Amino acid sequence: MIIVTGASRGLGRAVCDRLIANGQEVFGLARNVDGLPFHAMPCDMSDYDQVKAVARELRKQKANVTGLINAAGVAAMNLAITTPQSTTERVIRINLLGTIYSCQLLAPLMMRSNAGSIINFSTIAVALGLKGESIYVASKAGVEGFSRTFAREMADFGIRVNCVAPGPIDTALLRGITGDQIDKIVSQQIFAKQYTPDAVCDIVELLLDPRSSAITGEVLNVGGA
Q1: Tens-place pLDDT, residues 118-140
Q2: Long-range residue pairs from 184-187, CB within 8 A, at least 24 positions apart, any chain
Q3: In this predicted model, what pLDDT tens digit does every residue of 86-116 receive, in sequence order?
Q4: How far is residue 110's CA from residue 44's CA, in Å, rounded to a whole number?
Q5: Could you give the CA distance from residue 219 to residue 225 in angstroms, rounded to a whole number?
Q6: Which of 24, 98, 193, 224 could join 45 in a cystine, given CB atoms 3.0 to 4.6 angstroms apart?
Q7: 142 pLDDT more than 70
Q8: Is 136 one of the catalytic residues?
C-alpha cells in the first residue's frame, strides 16, 4: 500500500491515478475524500491528532505500507512584509508541520518490513529563491531540511526519504498566478519549460522503484535549478 496525502486534487491526485494505473494499492488522505475512486480517509494533515488517528486505523488493519507520498500543500505568492499573519501560519502549518506529522506518525508503518520510500513535495522556488514567495519558500525549505535529516534517521530501517521539487505545474495551485508570472519562473529553470503532472509522476515512480535504492536524502528539482 502507498499512502498519498493531498490525494483529492492537483499533483496528489495525479500521483494516485498513475499508481492505480500501474496496479498499485493506494490509500489517499485529504480534507475531503468524497467521490474518490480509491480507498481514502478524511484527514487534515496539519492536525496531529487526525494524522495519529489515521496511523492507528492503518495499524489496526495491519496495512502493508511500502510508500508514503506527502503531496498535501498550499502556496502563497506575496512579499513577506505584506503577507497576513493568518496566511503565514496556514502555509507553515500545512506545508511543514503537515509533512513532519505525516512522517512522524506514518513512517513507523513501514519500519516493520525494513523497507520503503518516503517522498516529500517541495518546490523549485527554494533553489531559485523566487521573489514574492518568501513564506512559501520558508515552509518548503523546512521540508527539504527535515527530509535530509530524516533520511539519516530512517536509514537504519531501510527506508529512503527524498524530495521532489516541481516548478509551475498546471494544477489548481496555480490559480491566481498570471501567465507572465509563470513564464518568469519557468525562464529561471535549467530547462525553461512548463512541465505537466506526468513529469512529476515519472519522478515519483522512479523514487518508489526498488531500483532507486541508492537514492536518499536528495532533492530532485523538476526542470533543474
Answers
A1: 999 999 999 999 999 999 999 99
A2: 185/124, 185/125, 185/128, 185/130, 186/223
A3: 999 999 999 999 999 999 999 999 998 889 9
A4: 21
A5: 11
A6: 98
A7: yes
A8: yes
